[in-house]
Amino acid sequence: MAGRPRGVDDVVILRAAAEVIGRVGPAGFTLAAVAAEVGLVPGTLVQRFGSKRGLLLALADRSVADADELPAALRPEHPSALAALVALQVGWAAPMATPESFANHLAFLCTDLTDPQLHERALAVHRAQRGAVEALLTEAVHAGELLDGTDVPALAGTVQAITAGAGLTWALERDGTLPERLRRELDAVLAPHVPPRHGHHLEES
Predict the structure, then answer these.
(1) Which of 8, 58, 76, 81 could form a disulfide with 139 if both were Cys (CB 3.0 to 4.6 A apart)?
(2) Mind telling me which PANTHER family this protein's record contains (predicted)?
């Protein structure tokens, strides 16, 4: 006998959980809040995930999968590796569209840094993102978008550090949008590595 329909897919619930995190932060994150977001009762989430912690671990696992999947989804949409790189950084930051949501996600990251199981998953996201950045920078070198001899691993580390710092600076200064800030900072970081004949137009990519 087939099981009863699940009604709302787990991925939809996890997307809703991320929305709730951005809106209310750790203090307001409850199974009831997530259930209300998708029109379910909290007991359904208990059946699916076991507890609030179980839901957070499932969300962390989904974040690892997203970090792996987004680069392949975005690459065909952009004419160059550097344009894809900027779009990727903007895409990963999309849940943090306001200073308040940035603060709430940052508060959860602080939890990730102190919880061994959550830290393991956060580190996996970080490493997946690093791998995607290195792959796009390597492609850019081969395509002549970046100078021959560019130290790709070092530049990838700088890109990740600048991206993280740009978000925090933007949330403090509240000048423009986060995508605008990311493009501006990435333009400044990558410009010295771009051959003169190519120029750099990451602000517009």
Answers:
(1) 81
(2) HTH-TYPE TRANSCRIPTIONAL REGULATOR RUTR (PTHR30055), POSSIBLE TRANSCRIPTIONAL REGULATORY PROTEIN (PROBABLY TETR-FAMILY) (PTHR30055:SF209)
